[in-house]
C-alpha cells in the first residue's frame, strides 16, 4: 500500500491536558517549533524533519530528511509542564538523525533533566482499532498564521491494523476524518502513547498527515519508534560526558573563571563610577513593556509579510526586536530577551531571526535608501 504525506501541518480540537505528563517537551528554534518526548535525562525524541534545515524550493510534502542538520545552539526546549513556557528550560548540545531515513531525530540536552522520562514500548505491531493518545503543542487551527497552543493538548486516536503499515512496521497510521480533530503545524514529533500496566509507554513520534491508496480520506502518520530500540540505546550510550568534578582541567577553568570575574567586576565598578546616572534617572528596562508589545502587534497587523529580527543587548542596552515589512518599512521596540522575541513571533505567526546570524534583509536597506532621497514637489 502506498502512503504519501508531509510534515504535520497543534492539535486542532482535541482536549486540554489536565494531568501531568512530565515527559512532554516543547521544541523551539528560530524558524518554528515542534513537539517531543523526554526518553532519558539527556535525550529528547522528536520528528526528523524538525532538526534539519529548510531547502530552497523544497516541496510541501517533502520532509527534507537528507537536508543538513540545524545548529544545536539554535534550539530551546521546555520540559514537563502543561503550560508552554512553564516547563524546565534546557538548551541542545547535539542533534542526531534517525536511521534508515525514518522521520525521527534525537536532541541531546546540555544538562540532564530531573523530569521523569517516558519508556519506549517493547517492539510491537499495532492491532487494528488499538487506542492511543497523541500529545503535542502545535497550532490551534490549520490556517498558516494561526497561533501555537499555549497549553498542552491531547487527541485520542484509533490506530489502523497491520494492513496499513509500511514494510517493517515502521509507520503508524490512523484516520483523520474530522478536520476539527487532527494534528496541525507544530505537532510534529509529538509523542503517540499507549497505556500498559497503568503507565504510559511511547510507541510513536508524529511525522505528519497524508493519504493512502487504500483510503480516500486523510490519515495521520507517525514513526513506530518501537522498531528502533537498538538505535535509541546505542545513541543514548554516546552521551557527551560531563567533566569530572575533581579533574585538573575543571580546577584550572574555575581558577581562570575567578580571575576573569574579579577583573570584570573591577572594570565594571570603574565604569559605573564614570557613568553614574544623575539623581532620579531611571535604569534601562529589562523587558518589553505592554505598550511595546501592543504597538508591535498593531504595526504587524497593518502590514504584510512582516519578519522579526532579534538584536541582542549589552550590559547597558536592553535587547530589541526590529519588525521589517515586505516593502522594507521597519520599526524597533524593546523585547528584553531572545525567548521573549520567539514567544512574540510564535503567538502571531511572525518568523524570528537573530540578526547577528542572518544580517538585515536587502529590502530594509532599499527602504532606507529611498527614505534618504529628497522628495520632489
Automatic annotation (TrEMBL):
Transmembrane spans: 243-268
Classification via Gene3D superfamilies: Trypsin-like serine proteases
Residues annotated as domain Peptidase S1: 11-237
Keyword annotations: Disulfide bond, Membrane, Transmembrane, Transmembrane helix
Superkingdom of source: Bacteria
InterPro entries in the cross-refs: Peptidase_S1_PA, Peptidase_S1_PA_chymotrypsin, Peptidase_S1A, Trypsin_dom, TRYPSIN_HIS
Pfam families for this protein: Trypsin
PANTHER family: PEPTIDASE S1 DOMAIN-CONTAINING PROTEIN (PTHR24253:SF183), TRANSMEMBRANE PROTEASE SERINE (PTHR24253)
Protein name as catalogued: Peptidase S1 domain-containing protein
Species classification: Bacteria, Bacillati, Actinomycetota, Actinomycetes, Pseudonocardiales
Amino acid at each position: 500500500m502506498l502512503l504519501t504525506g508531509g510534515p504535520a501541518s497543534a492539535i486542532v480540537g482535541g482536549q486540554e491536558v489536565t494531568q501531568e505528563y512530565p515527559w512532554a517537551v516543547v521544541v523551539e528554534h528560530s524558524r518554528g517549533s515542534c513537539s517531543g518526548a523526554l526518553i532519558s535525562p539527556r535525550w529528547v525524541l522528536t520528528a526528523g524533519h524538525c532538526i534539519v534545515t529548510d531547502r530552497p524550493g523544497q516541496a510541501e510534502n517533502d520532509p527534507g530528511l537528507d537536508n543538513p542538520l540545524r545548529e544545536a545552539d539554535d534550539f530551546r526546549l521546555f520540559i514537563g509542564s502543561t503550560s508552554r513556557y512553564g516547563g524546565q528550560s534546557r538548551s541542545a548540545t547535539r542533534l542526531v538523525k534517525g536511521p534508515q531515513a525514518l522521520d525521527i531525530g534525537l536532541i541531546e540536552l546540555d544538562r540532564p533533566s530531573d523530569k521523569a522520562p517516558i519508556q519506549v514500548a517493547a517492539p510491537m505491531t499495532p492491532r487494528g482499532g488499538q487506542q492511543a493518545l497523541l500529545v503535542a503543542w502545535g497550532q490551534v487551527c490549520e490556517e498558516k498564521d494561526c497561533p501555537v497552543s499555549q497549553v498542552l493538548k491531547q487527541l485520542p486516536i484509533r490506530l489502523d491494523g497491520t494492513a496499513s503499515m509500511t514494510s517493517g512496521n515502521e509507520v503508524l497510521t490512523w484516520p483523520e476524518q474530522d478536520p476539527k480533530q487532527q494534528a496541525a503545524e507544530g505537532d510534529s514529533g509529538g509523542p503517540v502513547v499507549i497505556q500498559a500496566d497503568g503507565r504510559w509507554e511511547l510507541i510513536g513520534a508524529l511525522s505528519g498527515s497524508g493519504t493512502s491508496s487504500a483510503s480516500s480520506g486523510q490519515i495521520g502518520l507517525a514513526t513506530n519508534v518501537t522498531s528502533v530500540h537498538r538505535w535509541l540505546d546505542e545513541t543514548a550510550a554516546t552521551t557527551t560526558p560531563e567533566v569530572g568534578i575533581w579533574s585538573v582541567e575543571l580546577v584550572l577553568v574555575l581558577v581562570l573563571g575567578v580571575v576573569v570575574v574579579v577583573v570584570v567586576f573591577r572594570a565594571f565598578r570603574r565604569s559605573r563610577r564614570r557613568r553614574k546616572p544623575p539623581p532620579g534617572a531611571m535604569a534601562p528596562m529589562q523587558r518589553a513593556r505592554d505598550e511595546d508589545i501592543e504597538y508591535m502587534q498593531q504595526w504587524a497587523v497593518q502590514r504584510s509579510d512582516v519578519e522579526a529580527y532579534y538584536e541582542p543587548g549589552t550590559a547597558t542596552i536592553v535587547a530589541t526586536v526590529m519588525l521589517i515589512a515586505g516593502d522594507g518599512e521597519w520599526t524597533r521596540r524593546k523585547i528584553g530577551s531572545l525567548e521573549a522575541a520567539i514567544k512574540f513571533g510564535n503567538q502571531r505567526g511572525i518568523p524570528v531571526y537573530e540578526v547577528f546570524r542572518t544580517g538585515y534583509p536587502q529590502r530594509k536597506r532599499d527602504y532606507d535608501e529611498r527614505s534618504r532621497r529628497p522628495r520632489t514637489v
